Amino acid sequence: MQNLLSMKDLTIEDITAILDRAEILKHYGIREMSEKYMISNLFFEPSTRTKMSFEVAERKLGLEVIPFESGFSSVLKGESLYDTLRTLEEIGMDAVVIRHPEERYYEELVGNLNLAIINGGDGSGQHPTQSLLDLFTIKEAFGGFKGLNVLIAGDIVHSRVAKSNADALKKLGANVTFLCPPQWAGEFDSVSEWEGTIETSDVVMLLRVQHERHDGETGFTKEEYHRKYGLTVEREASMKPGSIIMHPAPFNRDVEIAGSLVEGRRSRIFKQVENGVYIRSAILETILKGRELTWRKSLKMPMY
């Protein structure tokens, strides 16, 4: 694997290998890589969990993390993303993690650059590292995916998490249902009523209402949304035994999920955050080691 851009690009074997490696790292600890690599995190949208867990993973792996602040970069002077990355490549960067508001920003970059690109989220497009940590969390709870019923509820049309997880879960044999207001379904078939779906769901995954992509106008008050489309305490009570609740966060308590459920017995929300470090460590290892082997082969150098 040379880059990680979209869950559409990953085979079942690719996914399985990353999940298995993350499990090893979680049980035996993350250790520094034998080679030294330089990496930078380019976040052009706000982030807490993705950015910070990547930084923790990078430091645990012994990578040299070079700071990048978009608000103080030449991007503000009109420099293109390609020219920024070409500059980082020339000064010795091995890999970058990028979050960008433009969907598929990476299409014009791949093939024109030699440094590795890890997609930390592109607009309303894809969020592969979040999807992989979600898969890891589900696998911990159920041991696998085949035949699981996964209900994804919320702002589907604007959610890169929904799109990434839909691709991956269906590929792995899970049944995926979307629940949202009809106008928020986007490309997916959806339902708008909890009854008849929540009772049979193994995983209920909530999504944040992305006000910033609605220009602030969603058509619902917080109370209205929670009452019709949120996971209320009453709805949680009808969930099947052993089922779990997930959310990629940030979450709005008492909007998409009742505040008391965030840390309730079914919740895996903060477990997802913890698992993010192991998954992102596994991704970094996989990509950097893979590129190192390719580089050595191209130069006919010994592979230690």
From TrEMBL:
SUPFAM superfamilies: Aspartate/ornithine carbamoyltransferase. Carbamoyl phosphate binds at R49, T50, R99, H127, Q130, A249, P250. It catalyses: carbamoyl phosphate + L-aspartate = N-carbamoyl-L-aspartate + phosphate + H(+). Keywords: Pyrimidine biosynthesis, Transferase. Residues 146-286 form the Aspartate/ornithine carbamoyltransferase Asp/Orn-binding domain. One of its GO terms (cellular component) is cytosol. Pfam families: OTCace (PF00185), OTCace_N (PF02729). This is Aspartate carbamoyltransferase. It comes from Sporosarcina luteola. The gene is pyrB.
